[in-house]
Structures are given as structure tokens and as C-alpha cells.
Amino acid sequence: MRWIHEAAWGDVPTALAAVFTAFAAVAAWKTLGSQRKQIREQQAFIAEQSVNLALERQELRAVAQERREAQARRIVYEVTPPYVKVLNQSGDPITDVRCVEGGQQAVRAVASEAGGVAAALIAEQMLEREQAHIDVLGAGRLGWFQRRSGPSGGVEVFFTDRDGVRWRLDSNRTLQEEAPPPPVA
Hints:
Layout: H1 2-6, H2 11-70, E1 75-79, E2 83-88, E3 94-101, E4 104-105, E5 109-113, H3 119-128, E6 133-137, E7 141-146, E8 155-160, E9 166-169, E10 175-178
């Protein structure tokens, strides 16, 4: 134990501090490396979550659009020589129903129950009306639009659904959302 008394103790604390500093530097370096790895993993996870959220958002938008179009897709029409018949097969009324053929609005319009309605009765009701559109076409009801005589073009039916969305159903049975019509003066 003689060496303990003969050692230069002034250099030992400096040496121990250097060793501890080296260990601390190695530990810090390993900690930083571990943290960088965790950050990379978190960034990869966030990127994956962003992709998943974008897909979910896209799916939710598609479902919302389907729900938005559900009532409008239940509106159908048939073109016969004297009339265009619009049937509301949805569970809710539609409003401001209009029929345009070849760029011209129908002559007159009436609403009736769907089913065996005699054409003579419809013709009689048409003569009593001056209105060329139907304000409200209830669920399960039929709208009759008197066609103009002469050459015709494609038929388009315009209506507003229960949510206030304006739709156009064209002669190809393509459904499109429309801007609301201008107010009638």
C-alpha cells in the first residue's frame, strides 16, 4: 500500500474526471442515437397514419356523397307522347320540380297519386292549371308534365331534394348537382 502514499493525488481526480467524462460522452452519444431512431420511427408512424387518415377521409366523403345523392337517385321519369311522367320513389317530397325538353319548359304540370290514373283525368286537370312546374311532389307521387308539340330534344328534369340540394336528371339518366334556380320575380 505504499504506492497509495507515493501517488501524485493531484492528477488522480483529473484522471477520474476524464474517465467519467468519457463515459458520460459515450452514454450521451448512445442516448442521442436511440432518440434519433425513435424520432425516425415516429416520423414513419406519422406518415403511415397520415395516409390512413387521408384514405378514411376519402371514404367518408364518398359515403357522405352517396347519402347526399340517395334521395335524388330515387327520382325517375318516363317520356310518353303527350307527357313526361316524373315518379318520386323516395320517402321524402321533392320541391320545385320542372321539366325541360329541347331547352323549353313544359306547357303545364300536375301531380297525382302513382298508379292507375286515367290519362283523361290528367288531361282535364292540365287544362285547369297554368303552372308549368310542381311546387311539391310528395313521396310516391307522380308528376305529369305536358310536352310541347313539334320536334323535341333531350328531356331534363330539375328538382330540389329534402336537404335543399338542386338536381338535374338528363335524358341519359345522369344525375348532376345544380346551382339553385334564380328567384322568380
